[in-house]
Q: What sequence folds into this?
């Protein structure tokens, strides 16, 4: 009876040890393949800045996933896919030919990049039938980017569009004063 208990105990301890080792191995493999290094994040953000700042749309396929989705706070529609991304870049560069985004801060956690940036440019393009103002904008924002297989798959964008409109000379009129 003692030998049966001893054999059973060895089996249980062996199985538990094997389970723990497999769990650690699979957890490590999963973590390692999804975690970004600061260097990888920097390289991806540098490509993004080249696309926006220099109009290098040819670089988009290198770091934008085909199933890419971008959500911008306050915007009614998401940007979807590589072509949607390129269309958005063209919009900003057409309206602000000297468009420039600079990196202020970069934080990397697991497969996410948190990027605080500053955007500048001069309004020289027509926007929804509104002539250009010729005024400069300077606005800060934050992007939270999810990366998979070395490419951006999702981006959440936050910036103060009201600040942009005020810098362009637009006035905010309260609803009760609109008809006066």
A:
């Amino acid at each position: 009876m003692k030998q049966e208990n001893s054999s059973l105990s060895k089996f249980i301890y062996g199985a538990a040890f094997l389970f723990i080792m497999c769990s650690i191995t699979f957890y490590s493999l999963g973590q390692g393949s999804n975690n970004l290094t600061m260097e990888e994040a920097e390289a991806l953000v540098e490509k993004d800045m080249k696309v926006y700042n220099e109009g290098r749309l040819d670089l988009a396929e290198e770091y934008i996933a085909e199933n890419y989705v971008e959500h911008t706070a306050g915007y009614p529609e998401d940007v979807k896919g590589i072509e949607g991304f390129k269309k958005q870049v063209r919009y900003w560069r057409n309206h602000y030919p000297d468009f420039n985004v600079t990196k202020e801060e970069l934080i990397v956690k697991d497969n996410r990049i948190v990027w605080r940036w500053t955007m500048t440019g001069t309004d020289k393009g027509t926007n929804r039938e509104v002539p250009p103002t010729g005024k400069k904008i300077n606005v800060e924002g934050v992007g939270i980017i999810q990366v998979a297989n070395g490419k951006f798959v999702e981006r959440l964008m936050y910036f103060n569009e009201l600040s942009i409109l005020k810098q362009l000379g637009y006035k905010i009129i309260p609803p009760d004063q609109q008809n006066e």
User: Anything to note?
Assistant: Residues 2-34 form the longest helix (33 residues).
